[in-house]
Amino acid sequence: MKISGFTMVKNVSKLYYPIKESIASILDLVDEFVVALGDCDPDDNTQELIESLNSPKIKIIHTTWDTAKYPRGMENAHQTDIAKAECTGDWLFYLQADEVVHEKYHAEIKSMCEKNLDDERVEGFLFNYIHFWGDFDHYQHKHGWYPSEIRIVRNKKDIHSWKSAQSFRRIPNFDGLNYRVKEGTFKLGVKKLEAYIYHYGWVRPPKLMTKKSASLNKIHSNKVDENDFIKPKEFDYGPMLQFPKFKGTHPKVMKDWIAAMDWKDQLNYSKYSKSPENRLTKKAIKVKILTWIENNLLGGKKLFTTKNYKLIK
Fold it and tell me: Taking the domain 3-202, which CATH number applies?
């Protein structure tokens, strides 16, 4: 059995993504790791960071992004597919640049891949998620945050990245353009792993968080205030004590990244908002009510979520 890791990246070092740590977190688990590296800005050193891992398993493919041809975030899926197509493993392990796997899950992941290798019903594996927020000690528990997602798929040509690369679907006779198509597509049959993806996408200095959000908005809608890049305001994470405290351990590869955190003095460690922009809207009140129901009455089960998979028991 062979496992390939793969990802797609562009300008991730300048936007404070832990790309080196992300790749390193599964290097011991995979036989190869394919990176689709987009046309980065001159002040970005993503390639150097990846190459500093000095691993013969890593294969970098240089690509050019075209958000006009692939709008609404679909370039993310297109780039993911480029990397996927170069993978040679039986199972393909996808990580985005802000996703990291704890080493304590390696044995479980490998065991399940081996156990289900010949079971063609199983087209992939579902991971739980923990979304860290603001710092490395708190995480998101509010309604609307996805609790799980597909991150390992079989190496089949008709399995494609979907929408803006959050998930995967089987798309026979895919035209190679519309990654948001629903008609004629099929949800993958997956088994759920007792493992978590540690998502650090919302843990970065407040001004860089604003830049990262602006970058995503530009990819998805091409509507962005250029001042968010030139003179970014500090992103408001809100009252940190409203979020649960993380009581576990982080992956070993994150040790230096976490130690370098230097923006705690820019966070609001209270239960109350200091910003008038955070006043409760009708939508915020609805989220607050649903969050309370989910966490106090349903044991964390999420309401009204879209499940882009068929769970195999």
Answer: 3.90.550.10
